[in-house]
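Researcher: Good morning. I'm working through a list of sequences from a screen, and I'd like to move beyond sequence-only analysis. For each chain I'm collecting a predicted structure so we can compare shapes side by side. This is the next one on the list. No need for commentary yet; just the structure.
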Amino acid sequence: MTMRILREPRMDHGIPPMPEAAAKIGAVEADAEILRTPSGEGSQIWRVWGLGSGRPNLVFFHGGYGSWIHWIRNVPFFKQHFTVYCADSPGLGDSDPPPDTRNADGIGEVIANGLKQLFPNPDDRFDLVGFSFGSILGGHTAQFMDQRLRSFTLVGAGGMGLSRAEGMPMSRFRRDMTHAEFTDLARNNLGILMLRDRNEIDDVALLMQMLNTTRAVTRSRIFAREASLAKVLPKCPAPIAGIWGQFDSTGYPFLHERKEMLQRIQPGCPFVIVPEAGHWVMYERADAFNHALLKLLERDLSAT
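Model: Good morning. Structure tokens for this chain:
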């Protein structure tokens, strides 16, 4: 199996050949259908597993400088229980840019309009899960939704205007890098931001990082600095919940502030901490994450 790359990387020298990692990603992607909704002058791309199965709908939003591959260890589990939709956010992954890459409300409206096309009947409900920047976009999308949105789970969310420890600076990719330099830089950045255990940085994670970063047009960091999620989350029309890795680089040791904010917005909001996990919790501790999220989603399904 090979990956379907619909929008090529923007690096002149390309990405180091990693056929085994590409095959692993392609094997998960193989039974997905590709759907398109408008994004600027082009399309937003959605990969869907189990379309027409009649199972409940589950929508995943990936993190900044990312793509659907952020959910590579979760799709095989959740497609057994749900029809799974993985977005590539506008201007990231395989999706074309939105009209304004710096307007979070505008991007949220683009995505919301796309979701209303995917679920044209207001009774076609779905659960939304957003990782990191995906939680920010999820909040800006949720404000434009209606009863279609059954629940919104935030995973390692940014954009909340809360305390954050000073971390090591990450380095930027350059066009003149060799394959070895490119790979080493990706490994280092993954270790700084995404994964607590550097032993979890395998070839799939490296290929994901290099492929996604070199296609990114929409820049996520400006929205995190503006605390834009904190401004729009109270407008979410559905129950919210939170899942964080215990040692999330964007939140540790201030996870209590995240829990308190969510519970101020919705008293009693569930907040799950996955032990021994970093920011990319659903990759590093996939089994624990999958079962924690499934338990939250089963709660939401039983309430409808």
